[in-house]
Amino acid sequence: MILKGFKEKSNKKYLNKILLNRYVYVDNSKIKSLGVILNIDEVDDFERFRSLAAYINVRPNRLKVIAYSPTKSEKPNFWEVCFNPKDIGWRGAIKNIELQSFLDTPYDALISYYTSEELELKLLTGLSKAKFKIGILQTDSRLNDLIIKTKVNEFNVFKKELFKYLTILNKI
């Protein structure tokens, strides 16, 4: 238990360091690729994100979704990648190869669709090489470039607002 507390403290320090040194991309490029990070305990419908990608003109082969499960160690077969706390080590070290591949991919946009205060989810959002980060309301506003204040179960509102703001920002 003591080591778990030290590991969490180590990851919090690392997340703060990442967010302090974060470079914000400012460009007018269109969104052609999309990554999604979500909590499987909050969202269980993968098809929503396929329809969202089609709605903002992202091809299905340019969409990648990863799910986080804080309790489940089994990996459901309907998620592309499902990970748990054991896949993240000290100082944010990623132990899962698929997860590391997701983080190293420079997506045009990353959607962090979760409201839970899970350190692992925040760490993944911070570690992602995505150019434009979008999220729903969270306590740490440094994680995302665009924050849309909706509840997790109001996906259609999120979808409409996202389309509206991406059109205003000339991203689609």
What's a quick, concise take on this entry?
The chain is an alpha/beta fold and 172 residues long.
3D structure, described in words:
By secondary structure, the chain is of the alpha/beta class. Helix content is about 35%, strand content about 15%. A six-stranded parallel β-sheet has the order 3-2-1-4-5-6, sandwiched between helices. α2 (about 45-55) links the parallel β1 (about 35-40) and β2 (about 65-70). The model has no long low-confidence stretch (mean pLDDT about 85).
Number of helices: 5
The H/E string reads HEHEEHEHEEH
Can you summarize the main beta sheet?
A: 6 strands, parallel
Strand content: 15-25%
Rg estimate, integer Å? 15 Å
**How many beta strands in the DSSP annotation?**
6
* Termini Cα gap: 47 Å
Are there runs of 5+ residues with pLDDT below 50, and where?
none
Structural class: alpha/beta
User: Reading side by side through the largest sheet, how are the strands ordered?
Assistant: 3-2-1-4-5-6
Mean pLDDT over the full residue set: 84
The share of residues in helices is 25-40%
Q: How does the overall form come out from the CA principal axes?
A: globular
Question: What's the arrangement of secondary structure elements?
Answer:
Elements: H1 2-20, E1 34-39, H2 47-55, E2 63-68, E3 81-83, H3 97-104, E4 109-113, H4 119-127, E5 133-136, E6 146-148, H5 155-168
Parallel strand pairs: 1-2, 1-4, 2-3, 4-5, 5-6
Helix pairs in contact: 1-4
